[in-house]
Every structure is written in C-alpha cells, then in structure tokens.
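Re: [help] complex structure
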Amino acid sequence: MNASIYRNLINELDAGKKAVVVTIMSDKDSESNSFLEKTLLTEGEMGLQNCIHNLDEVIFQKAQYALESGNLQFDKDPGKKTYLIEPYFPEPRLIVLGGGHIAKPLAEFGARLGFLVTVIDDRPSFANKERFPDAERVICESFEKCFNLFRINESTFVVIVTRGHRHDIDCLRQVLKYNAAYIGMIGSKRRVKSVKEQLLSEGYSQEMLNKMNAPIGLAIGAITPDEIAISIIAQVISYRRLGGTMSLSAKSPKMNWPELDRIVLEELSKGENDPKAVVTVVSTKGSVPRKAGAKMLVWPYGKTLGSIGGGCSEGEIIHIARDVIRNRGYMVQPIDMTGQIVEDEGMVCGGMMEVVIESCVE
Amino acid sequence: MNASIYRNLINELDAGKKAVVVTIMSDKDSESNSFLEKTLLTEGEMGLQNCIHNLDEVIFQKAQYALESGNLQFDKDPGKKTYLIEPYFPEPRLIVLGGGHIAKPLAEFGARLGFLVTVIDDRPSFANKERFPDAERVICESFEKCFNLFRINESTFVVIVTRGHRHDIDCLRQVLKYNAAYIGMIGSKRRVKSVKEQLLSEGYSQEMLNKMNAPIGLAIGAITPDEIAISIIAQVISYRRLGGTMSLSAKSPKMNWPELDRIVLEELSKGENDPKAVVTVVSTKGSVPRKAGAKMLVWPYGKTLGSIGGGCSEGEIIHIARDVIRNRGYMVQPIDMTGQIVEDEGMVCGGMMEVVIESCVE
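Output below.
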C-alpha cells in the first residue's frame, strides 16, 4: 500500500510538482500493527481544501505550510498524536541553452549549487562532456529541435546564452510555452529589444515576455565570464529560494527545498516485502552533513541504501534500526555530532541531528 | 630612468593605490632615440590638477578617466601624437576572517573570481592549506593579533565569518581602522545588533559602523553554505566593479580592473640594461585569452616573461619583437584569433587583439 504512495510521489516529482507525505504514528504502547499510516497530499489536492483525505485540520494546515516552505515537521507531543510531515520538492534543474564562454562557468557553479545541469549547443565542439564535466546531460542538437529531448516544468530554471539572436528566438518560442521557475536571456539591451520585438510581432504577449529576465543576472557590474556566471546563478538562487521576489515576507517564506533521496523513494516504490527500516533526518542543529528530509534504508542483514551523513553515528543508527525492524514500530533517536574531537579533527560537522527510524513492511 | 617609474608604480600598488603610466610615442619617421617618453601619474597627484607633469590637457583628462574606469587607452591618430595610457590597479585581495563552513566555499569562489585570498582562524584544524587549497595565504593566529600579519587597504575586501560575536568584535576593532574596499560581517540580526552596540559603547561612530555590510551578502534567500558564499562573493564583486553603488552611472563607470602582470613590472623595475621588448595588449574584441593591459617581455635570444595568451600568435609576436629590439622604436600589431579552425577545435578564443611592441633599453 505504501509502495503506491511512493509511486505516485515520484510521478508528481517528475512532473515538476511538489507533494507532502503525512505519517501518523500511534503511541508505542499500542499493539496495533498498523500504527504507521501514510497519506500523500499532492500540490493540486492541497488547493481543494481538506476534503479528500479527511485529515485533522491542524495537520492539514501544517502540511500546507510544509508544501510552501519545504520545511519538514515532526511533532511528538506526549499524549497527542505523533506525526511526521515531509515535503518533497522535485530536484531543481538548470537548462543552459548555448555552450559558450558564459555557459562553462555557469554549468560548473550550477552543479555546485545543487542543480541538475543540462547544456545544449548545436556545435559538437561546444556540446561535449569534456567541456562540461559537471553537467548531468550535454545535448548536441539544434536549438529549434532540442526541446523534445528534455522537460521544462515548475522546477526548471532556464538560461539562454546562445551566440546569436536568431538562436535566442528559436529557444524562446519553445521556452515560453512552459511554466518554468526562471527564464533569463543574455544579450545587450539592443539585442534583447530586437528579440522581444520579433516575438511580439509573432503574437507573443508583453506579459509572457516580461517573465524573462533580460538583461540576465543581478546588476553587480559583472565583467568577466566568471563574474557574469555568478550574477546569473545568484539570480537563479533568488528564484529558487524566494520565487523571484528578492524580498522575504511571512506570506512567502524562504523555500527550504528539502533534500531528496530519489534512490530511496524508488526502492520504496517497488513494494518489495522484505522487512527493512527507513531512517529519516527530522531535525538538525549546527553544522551537520545532511539536512532534514535525508533518508537511508537499512536491511536487517546490514545492507543500506542512501545516507544520513556517514561516520560513527550512522553505524550506531544501523544497529538500532535492526531492533526497530525486529520489533516493528518506530523510534526517535538523537545523534550528537558535537564534541571537542570533531572540532580538533577539522571535520565539517559539529551539530546535532534527530532521526526517526520506521519499520517498513508492505 | 623607466626603471624608477616602475619601482614607484610597484610602491603605489603595494599601498593599495591605483596609478597611470602615460607613454607618448614619437612618429616612426623621427630618428630621435628618445621617442618613447613615460610618465607615472599617481592617484594622489591626479587630484592636484595637471601641474606636476605638464601633460597635454587631453591626455591628462584621458589619464583621469583611465584611473577611474580601469580602461586602457591607445590612440594612434595619424598626424597627431600617439599615446598609450595604462591604468594600473592593485591586485584585489579578499581577507576571510574565520575558517568555518562559509569560509570554505567563499575562499574557493574568491580565488576563482580573481582575488588573492587570505584566510585567518585561530584553530589549527580550520587554518590549514589542506582545507583552503585555493587561498594564497592561510594564517593561524588569534583574531586579535593577526592584523599585523597582512595589510588592509583600498583594494582589500574583508569578510568576517568567525564563529562568535566576541571574535567579530576583535576583528572589527582592527578592520574599522582601515579604508577597506568592502567590509561584510555574517550573523543574525540579533548578533549584528549586539556587536554594533558594543562597538558604539566603545566610541566607534555610527557612520563607521554603517560602512559594514551586516547582515552580509545580497538578499537572494541563500540557505546552504555554498549559497551564502555566492551571496557574499556577488556582493564583493559589486563593490569591486561598482564601488558598492549597485547602480551604473556615467559618473561612476563599471571598473574594469585591468590585468596586472606584476612579474613583468618587477623585471622592468630592476633597470637591467639588456635590450628587450615589452609587448602590451592594448585592445581586444570577442573571446580572447587575455585582456587589455596584459604584458609580456621578450629578449632577443628568445627568453620571455609573462604571457599575452600563448598559442601560435604569441610565436609570431615574439618574432616581430626581435625586429623591434634591433630597430628600436615601437610597432602596433593586430592578432587575429578568429577563424573556423578555432571554433571547430572548441578553443576558448575566437577574437581579435591588438598589441603594442616597444623596445626597451635603460
């Protein structure tokens, strides 16, 4: 039954949609076998009020907040219901149209900042893996025809850095069809103007063209290709985190964009009925290797999939997970990564994290 | 005589000052031996009107523009004077106080963006070359005592990312003494407020504290250490290029911050009297490996120092330079880096550049 939830979740993510998985946990005293009840709330359903899943209103409100903010929530008030609300965001993708001297540092910075990067150019000498080692995909195809080789959706950030305004127009005719998270186009004011005029004459509305950031990038006075790439990636980050508003308000919180362990979700979606445990990071404090939402699967005979950060603490959690698999149910476990030894060894982590370990049988 | 100009130039640069070298060239027909006349204009002198060097007023105005914009100028109108106006800017330095999880990506991005990076921390496990491979210097010293180990001047960008507000205060007490190009300090609003209150109570003025960017970085909604480092380096770039105004005007042009071949200047400052030629890139178009201001020295027997970009074109220039050394005087030479071959080979360069080759004997 949970397998179908994870299958639906993956479908939503692949369509560029966010979703929330709510897990309601019965008290540990309860002897019921079905004490972990999971519900998938999709972005579309969340707009439909709380009528489909008939959730507790407080939990539903918290799920909506999780969907907007990307913040995982875990409440374990004694006497009340214990619940885990996990927002899932699609992996952000950066599509770089054009493989020239701006694309090179941009692809590198994009990958470094956590985007899955795709670079497209029609020249084999510019569209190859040697030139873009950090890109997930490098596509050599004309700008007109390339658009059926990748998807653009609400978690896709599109940067147009081709070598000429004709290619820009070829790209924009396609890009403007989709609801991308970000569209930016490089070019002098004159080139941008001529591209916009051409598209207006073809029937594109001013409103559609206004969605495009052109000239591209934050106005930091960038001169070199590396600086221009920084100005672009900084703007892309602002769209990822603030939705392009460049200002914070209570209504639109900073989007946390939680960690996504796709490999773990795919395993869970298979519905294999071998007993295992799911370990989820539910809160962190200070400097820790992985953030809330990170997941690891543990099988009783020692196999694992995914990671909550490695090191000694992971070994301890694997040990505890075996008990959880044996006894069913769930456990909440703190992990202390502070301490003098950590600092003296110059390790990155020096914080605390809390994980939930759930037993998992189909 | 020119050697002393270069010695003075290096002194100015080391003090964080900009300067301009004006070279006035006689016509090639002239048989005079002193047809290359060089003048050093320092930043201080430029404020003193045009009285010291008695330069042509047009040239003096252009030198002032070069000092503000960083743009090299080369005029070779036939019939008029030929002159080369070269602005020299100190190498920009990024001082990172604190070696924690923000400092790590920041030092990397800073070096990548052309800054000479110094990282300081009082913990050996955080202040070491393994942790900061891209930093020019890593200093392990207390934040109180470290300030006599490096210099802060008008081309120094200072980022305070220590692990606590006491260290912040130790840093600021020192940093605020200098006229740094940029000061930024990380910290929550509360931490920043408490640091400012402490310093106000010690007699620092509100005006001085206002020079500091705190909270640090552009407001792009950064969450991860890498994103925070991007928001900081983007702000640092805006100070480097726009002087912190984040807006362009005719009065304050984008600062080009020309290439500095210190190794070449140091050689010229020695005043060795062996004949050689100085090759200077004076203009570029399109994608070229080095920009205006790049310098290379060529000796008649084939030795070179510095580089104008390498490749076949450099070989050709070295050949021509030998003629210039033999015949004295100077030559202007275009270098064509366009052409199908370049593009097909996926090379970075596909532009044009123009170089001036001057013979040079003390």
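The first strand of chain B starts at residue 19 and ends at 25.
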